[in-house]
From TrEMBL:
Keywords: Disulfide bond, Electron transport, Redox-active center, Transport
Species, as recorded: Salix viminalis (Common osier)
Pfam families listed in its UniProt record: Thioredoxin (PF00085)
InterPro entries: Thioredoxin-like_sf, Thioredoxin_CS, Thioredoxin_domain, Thioredoxin_H-type-like
Name of the protein described by the UniProt record: Thioredoxin domain-containing protein
């Protein structure tokens, strides 16, 4: 199920679908409808689209969360600065990618060593990215047969756009630079499942 975060009286922008009507002033004295709750002083609306509950809009600094998986669609004005350190993001055996040249170098190394690349397109201001970062770092140590990369979508915005990144975190599984699989959102069980499946499909190491 998807939720849209609304702040009363703040402007909303639509996400390619029509918003169900909601009049804040008309509901102020009557209480919120059964399809909304309050979380940290924010009005959380679950709006209806064609009979099904679905995500509808972005408010509060153009930021939306998919709560069952965890992802960010855009940066909020209240989020951390872009130049915040990546220390907690690039731990373990995770390689931080800050240039296109570094990316090409790592993919070349992966081809040479016959490794699958797992590329995490992330952002320091993204809450779900922060939450899954320690888990991603642990996985990098548990699966040495894979190469784990971290790409900051703000530092490499043009490069990230070339991969059509619509939300963070987004994970790509690559062999010889070609996409094998993809996962959008901080879904730990699904990420673990995909990594395990790919690792199990690899031939045994000679070491």
């Amino acid at each position: 199920m998807y939720f849209a975060f609304h702040k009363p009286l703040s402007p909303c922008r639509q996400q390619n679908i029509l918003l169900s009507p909601f009049d804040y002033s008309a509901n102020q004295d009557q209480g919120f409808p059964s399809t909304s709750i309050l979380i940290h002083n924010l009005l959380v609306l679950i709006l209806k689209k064609k009979g099904n509950w679905d995500i509808i809009s972005i408010c509060l600094g153009l930021k939306v969360w998919k709560l069952d998986m965890g992802l960010c669609l855009a940066k909020s004005n209240n989020d951390a600065d872009d130049d915040e350190p990546h220390l907690e993001f690039a731990g373990g055996n995770v390689h931080l990618i800050t240039t296109k040249e570094r990316w090409d170098q790592k993919l070349s190394e992966a081809r040479r060593d016959d490794k699958i690349v797992l590329a995490n397109f992330s952002a320091t201001w993204c809450g779900p990215c922060r939450q899954i970062a320690p888990f991603y770092n642990e996985l990098s140590e548990s699966y040495p047969s894979l190469m784990f990369l971290l790409i900051d979508v703000d530092e490499l915005s043009d490069f990230s756009a070339s991969w059509a990144i619509k939300a963070t975190p987004t994970f790509f599984f690559l062999r010889d630079g070609q996409q094998l699989d993809k996962l959008v959102g901080a879904n730990k069980p699904e990420l673990q499942k995909k990594i395990t499946a790919i690792a199990d499909s690899l031939p045994p190491s000679d070491e």
